Amino acid sequence: AIMSTPTTFRPVLERIAEEIERTPGSGRPADYIPALAARDPRRFGMAVAEPDGTVYGVGDWREPFSAQSITKVFTLALDLAREGDALWEHVGREPSGNPFNSLVQLEYENGIPRNPFINAGALVVTDRLHTRTGDAAGELLAFLREESGNPDLAHDAEVAASEAAHGDRNAALAHFMASYGNIDNPVPVLLDQYFRQCSVAASCADLALATGFLARHGIRADGSRLLSRSRAKQINAVMLTCGTYDAAGDFAHRVGLPGKSGVGGGIIAVVPGHCTLCVWSPGLDERGNSVAGVAALDRFTTLTGLSVF
Ligand code: GLN
Predict the structure, then answer these.
(1) Alpha helices (H) along 134-274
(2) What residues bind substrate, as annotated (predicted)?
(3) Is the CB of residue 270 less than 8 Å from the CB of residue 260?
């Protein structure tokens, strides 16, 4: 069902939803925790938010799903807003060309992760945000609630507990970086924050709205400034080059927008100055990106001609 808001994107979204429905579902839901494995890979939703907060969508666009690594964009923005460029002494901005949970590059680079969107880099960002706020996961949730206008957004305790029970890889990443002095908080404290961060449940509508500050060049929903224009540009650039891990080149080639995926099957994307998008479908490719999600964004930029290129 589509909301009755008349807009130029509406026929485009309808057409994409029809095309996705006709394409046999491919990809498999993330299976490293039971809560994600149970999702039906045929679910599909897509929302577009305009800079003034108008949002509309198709399919399951109001259905909450596990935001997972999409939250890494928001913690990055919140930490950059607080500590500024000092953050970049602790995490890089180069694509990794490796899977999101990879350990291999950390040793060569002295415990400095390649970018803030692979798990190692996101752990560093959350650690630093936690030091500055005393409650990184709470700070994130408050921000998402305000930007989406949805006060019911919450962490999913079952997902967070499941992450913790299967968290050996993230624990290894955090301990390894701590051995280089690149983690401030005790590792168990950091992991608890990170797993709660990943567990946020939100819909395409919520996440498209919450991403709006990146389309508004750093301006929040209430009109206040979170980031300078230049820092908002920098986050969009890192999303383009690093937001879909070892598929970032392919994503840029097909979609041509800054984007960030999560293993819950969601992807956010930004058309700077124009709109933000969020698409959700739980079937993932082998790199952890939603198959129908990438296909839908590919069709959106092709049909509308809107991309950063
Ligand atoms: N919770 C997941 C993890 O840390 C998030 C990864 C993702 O969404 N790519 O492994």
Answers:
(1) 136-148, 157-165, 168-179, 187-198, 204-210, 212-215, 229-242, 248-254
(2) 69, 119, 163, 170, 194, 245, 263
(3) no
Which of the four pLDDT bands, split at 50, 70 and 90, describes residue 23?
confident
Query: Which of 33, 75, 119, 159 to probe ligand 1 with, by most ligand atoms within 8 A of CB?
Result: 119
Give me the CATH topology for the region 10-304.
Beta-lactamase (3.40.710)
Counting atoms of ligand 1 from 1, which one is nearest the CA of 262? Answer: 8
Would you say how long the chain is, in residues? 309
Q: Using 50, 70 and 90 to split pLDDT, how confident is the model at 71?
A: very high
Selecting among 263, 270, 271, 294, the annotated active-site residue is: 263
Structure token pair of residue 194: 């990170």
Show the ligand 1 pocket: residues with CB < 6 angstroms.
68-69, 100-101, 119, 163, 170, 198, 262-263, 288
The CA 101 to ligand 1 mean position distance, Å, reads 8
C-alpha pair distances (Å), 277 with each of 50, 136, 250, 258:
9, 25, 18, 10
Nearest to 279 by CA among 298, 293, 264, 300: 293
Per-residue pLDDT reduced to its tens digit, 266-302: 999 999 999 999 999 999 999 999 999 999 999 999 9
Element of type H or E holding 20: helix 10-22
ipTM of this complex: 0.94
Q: Where are the domains of the chain?
A: 10-304
Distance 69 CA to ligand 1 centre (A): 5
Q: Establish whether 245 is a catalytic residue.
A: yes
